[in-house]
Amino acid sequence: MAIVDGWLDWAVRHPGPANKVYVTPNEQRGLVCHSAEGYNPSNFHELDRPDRAASWHCTNSLDGTFYQHYPFSASCWASGNYEANTRFVAVESEGVVGVDGPLNTLQVDNMLRLVHDLPFFPVRKSTLWEHNEVATMWAPNAGPTSCPSHRYDPFFAALEDDFMSLLTPDQQRKLLLRLFAGSEFPGDTDQQKLDRAIAEIDAGGTVQSLNDVSLSAIAVALDAHPGIDTSAAVQARVKTALENAAKDL
Fold first, then answer.
1. What is the mean pLDDT of residues 120-143?
2. Got the DSSP string for the chain?
3. Has residue 211 got a pLDDT over 70?
4. Across 85-89, 132-136, 167-171, least confident range
5. Phi and psi of 189, rounded to 5°?
6. Cβ-proximal residues to 49 (8 Å cutoff; 6+ apart), any chain
């Protein structure tokens, strides 16, 4: 088990001050990505300062070490307002935008591992956020921010490629079936529905009517059905529909 009593079993524990959290438990409905705009010695100093109103769950270090400071059930002071802080987990990635640029490979790998283990499916702007996207979403708040200044772009791109690996085989089947709900006939078995969905992808039928859908979802059928049309035109439409359906899994 990757999370035990709110703590990742693979992260290095560096507990933050016990009083720098809300009394309200964290709902764990999503993840907010932050750029630390500094390096761990100073970052941890700020975390440990009793007079500094800032705390966060995890630190994603440049050298690949991943620290956890609070259990995910805690509501930290990180994302600019009470609602964001009590709904979402917060991760800070070590580094400075103008010096270190986007997350490096080690940091991207850590983020992929993190979202695999957290108890929600990562969907951008639904359960996966940047600090600037939630900072002023609720009032009162600490004001707007540019954080994390696109530092997480490599992670978001990697997550696109990693999308289907986040799902169990059963979830993959459910997603494909849900995507093509209505195309089956009464009395069809799940396998018949799946076969019919595959045929519709191949024929470019139902898929053609969907908006803003994308690629990775088709992967559910590729291994068993290598003849499926995976042209860019079809691929560019399938994943968003699956991501939206995945919210309900």
1. 92
2. --EETTEETTSEE-PPPTTSEESSPP---EEEEEE-SB-HHHHHHHHH-TT-----SEEE-TTS-EEE-S-TTSEES-SSSHHHHHHEEEEEE-B-HHHH-S--HHHHHHHHHHHHHSSS---BTTTEEEHHHHTTTSSS-S----TTTTTTHHHHHHHHHHGGGGS-HHHHHHHHHHHTTTSSPTT--HHHHHHHHHHHHHHTSGGGG-SS--SGGGHHHHTT-TTS---HHHHHHHHHHHHHHHTT-
3. no
4. 167-171
5. -75, 165
6. none
Query: 36: how many CB neighbours lie within 10 A of its CB?
Result: 24
Going 35 to 41 to 44 to 48, the CA torsion angle's sign is: negative
Sign of CA dihedral 146, 149, 155, 160: positive
Q: Report residue 237 as tokens.
A: 């439409």
**pLDDT over 90 (residue 25):** yes
Nearest one of 223, 208, 216, 205 to 245, comparing CA atoms: 216
- Mean pLDDT across the chain: 79
Which of residues 163 and 34 earns the better pLDDT score? 34
46 with 92: CB under 8 angstroms? Answer: no
List, in order of start, the domains of the chain with CATH numbers: 3-165 (3.40.80.10), 167-246 (no CATH)
Predicted local confidence at residue 122, as pLDDT: 83
